[in-house]
Write a structure and sequence with these properties.
The chain is built from 12 helices and 8 strands. The chain is α/β, with parallel strands linked by helices.
């Protein structure tokens, strides 16, 4: 049985006082939640603050990106060692905004996945299609490429440490959401791809989140689907009370 996994992605929002206030409120709201994993992926500048606020709590901490080298002359980048040092446990890799705004390639993202795992960081690998790709019936082709290239060279034991986040790009920050049925169908397809790469037991064990305008009013129906194991939440994670409601989704 896959444990539900709800993650918040703050993107480029919040400064230290805002993060401190959020951290205290959110910790109180979710302190009794034990049957699902809770993660916040915050900007680099806030990770140290949140690590202190949530020390010994049930809230996991993640970064939103990293470089694949441990150290070196890479001005403006941050390494997996630096993320571990400040208290991060997870890292989002291959987010659509990194792929399409900052032009990250599948090969680069795969290097980052390997580097994260080599340094005891757990990757959340984002996959998903653009609106024009969906309209051209290329969803499965695009998603398969992202999964196959993202997992390239990973052993079965390392693959089991990766979480996949299916994020249809057309549904991120737009208010549009794939129907629970559409999202679940893509998750089923992703498991088929994982079974082809590894085997069916590995495919069944890997957690797959849905991301794309997840909100308080749709999380219950999304999480009711058998292949949706969690959510990667953007805007709705920026307010402690709304994100706590998403974390506390009702099983229907």
């Amino acid at each position: 049985m896959r444990k539900p996994f709800i993650a918040g992605n703050w993107k480029m929002y919040k400064i230290t006082p805002e993060a401190q206030a959020y951290a205290k409120e959110f910790k109180n709201l979710v302190q009794n939640v034990t049957d699902r994993d809770i993660l916040i992926c915050a900007p680099f500048t806030l990770l140290g603050t949140l690590a202190k606020e949530w020390n010994n709590s049930n809230i996991l901490l993640g970064a939103q990106n990293m470089y694949f080298e441990k150290e070196g002359a890479f001005t403006g980048e941050i390494s997996p060692l630096q993320l571990k040092d400040i208290g991060a446990q997870y890292v989002i890799l291959g987010h659509s905004e990194r792929r399409h705004i900052l032009k990250e390639t599948d090969a680069l993202i795969n290097k980052k996945v390997h580097a994260a795992l080599q340094n005891d960081l757990l990757p959340i690998l984002c996959v998903g299609e653009l609106l024009e790709e969906r309209e051209a019936n290329k969803t499965e082709t695009v998603v398969k490429t992202h999964v196959v290239e993202g997992f390239k060279g990973l052993s079965q034991s390392d693959a089991l440490k990766v979480t996949i986040a299916y994020e249809p790009v057309w549904a991120i920050g737009t208010g549009k959401t794939a129907t629970p049925e559409d999202a679940d169908a893509v998750h089923v397809f992703i498991r088929k791809v994982l079974a082809e790469i590894y085997d069916s037991s590995t495919a069944e064990a890997i957690r797959i989140q849905y991301g794309g305008s997840v909100k308080t009013d749709n999380v219950d129906s999304l999480m009711a689907k058998p292949n949706i194991d969690g959510a990667l939440v953007g805007g709705a994670s920026l307010k402690a009370d709304s994100f706590a409601r998403i974390v506390g989704f009702v099983k229907i």
